[in-house]
Amino acid sequence: MSSSDAHKVLIRESSLTSKGEAELPKAKLAVELALVATLASMLIISSVFSTLMSDFIVRSSGTIITMSPLHVEGKDIKDALGRTVYLRGINKVEFADDPDGIWMDETIWDEANVKAELDAMKSWGVNLIRCHQAVEHWKYDMNQPYAGISHKAAIKRLLQLAAERGIYVVYDAYRVTNYWNGGDQDPLPYPPYQLSQGASSVIANQQQFVEWWASVANELKDYTNVIFELWNEPCGDDTAMRSWFNISQRCITAIRATGATQLIIFQWEMACWVNLDYPPPSNEASTMDWVWQANLTDPTGNLVYSTHLYRTYGHFHHSQPTFWNAWNYSDIQLAFQYFKFPQVVSNYPLIIGEIGADLSKTGTELQHELTALDNCFKLFEEMQIHYVPFWWREIGIFALHNGVPNFAPNEAGQIVKSHLLSP
């Protein structure tokens, strides 16, 4: 029934009673009026839903795909319909190497390969991929001479293809110049903190980095499944920290000035760590205190905080009787308390941007790595912490699968996949 038909019914009922023509029994009138009210409510809800959906459609290959924008409400991430969203996925890092990424082990952009990898990720239960970027790729819209697609075009197409599969994408700034141009993991993206070869010719000062983020946000603000991460593992001394807090606030302000409302992920330091035998406040540790020290403001309120965790690097360890990395549930739970995870997740969304099991270990130590990974995921899920394991590759100590064409999970990948697919 259309809204005009419902209106006609209401008019007809009014005219019957006003003219005294065949007055309906009161019971029948009550039933019909209730029916009309229900239909009218359905029409209103349908109209509101359609309006909301029209605000977040992604058109790809002639197909309209609905992908809800995300926002923060207190400690939760929610979609446009108010449903809580739990982000869990994997790190896809190769945009930091090649402008168009590396897909199916090839440096040439081939959409069939991109789709195949995304389908494999989706089959694991992924709803988020974290993509590491080199700043110069976006700034100069670089492309491989043989790839046939530029960086910006590749990113935008990836966002469309990911949306078709219900996947959000983190655009994560990782280093200033790419791997082939001498790129390194820069502690901060501007002088004097850069390590990448030629970095100062790409980002010469703090203002240029702020402008770079404004450019990214301006072009991607209409892609509702993109998430912005200001910098991967920013770190340094107290002077660097104060500088980063200031520049991050300027970046947030610049991003919002474009009209972009997407989530922004903020991090300080590479990771949290603690000596479980000599914990804070009596002894040094890397905790989440910086969340409050940074004191960032965002007019949309859509800030998400992040840190990284790796057992193999001693992020939760004992020193008595000798140094050893913890692996059991109770020790890791205690470490999370020292990190102040409970205080953060009581107030803000928290995402673990990287975590992995070191597969170069052998014997009992390998089993401890795998057990620690599983226990971390259990605690993340209990505490409603979002997480993104490292990395979607078949090489390296943190590999998750055995490569093309099937992307079969290895020992660590089996643990990751089981958790991603869990309710």
Explain the overall architecture.
- With 423 residues, the protein is of the alpha/beta class.
- The chain has two domains: 3-52; 59-420, TIM Barrel (Alpha-Beta Barrel), CATH 3.20.20.
- The protein contains 13 helices and 15 strands.
- An eight-stranded parallel β-sheet has the order 5-6-7-8-9-11-14-15. Strands 10-12-13 form a three-stranded mixed β-sheet, with helices on one face.
- The longest helix is centred in the first third of the chain and has 29 residues, at 26-54.
Task: Tag the structure with descriptive keywords.
globular; TIM Barrel; about 40% helix; 3-stranded mixed β-sheet; 2 domains; 15 strands; disordered N terminus; about 425 residues; 13 helices; alpha/beta
Task: Please describe the topology of this protein.
Blueprint: H1 3-19, H2 26-54, E1 57-60, E2 63-66, E3 71-73, E4 76-78, E5 89-92, H3 111-123, E6 128-134, H4 135-139, H5 151-164, E7 168-175, H6 199-202, H7 206-220, E8 226-229, H8 238-257, E9 264-267, E10 274-275, H9 290-294, E11 303-309, E12 316-318, E13 324-325, H10 329-339, H11 341-345, E14 350-355, H12 363-383, E15 386-387, H13 411-420
Parallel strand pairs: 5-6, 6-7, 7-8, 8-9, 9-11, 10-12, 11-14, 14-15
Antiparallel strand pairs: 1-2, 3-4, 12-13
Helix pairs in contact: 1-2, 7-8, 12-13
Can you tell me the CATH architecture of the largest domain?
Alpha-Beta Barrel
Average pLDDT level: 87
Structural domains: how many:
2
Spatial ordering of strands, largest sheet: 5-6-7-8-9-11-14-15
**N-to-C CA distance:** 38 Å
Number of strands: 15
- Annotation field: number of helices: 13
Secondary-structure element order, N to C: HHEEEEEHEHHEHHEHEEHEEEHHEHEH
What top-tier CATH class of the largest domain fits best? Alpha Beta
Residue share in β-strands: 5-15%
CATH H-level homologous superfamily name of the largest domain: Glycosidases
Radius of gyration, in Å, reads: 26 Å
Q: Residue share in helices? A: 25-40%
**What's the story with the biggest beta sheet?**
8 strands, parallel
The stretches of 5 or more residues where confidence is low (pLDDT under 50) are 1-65
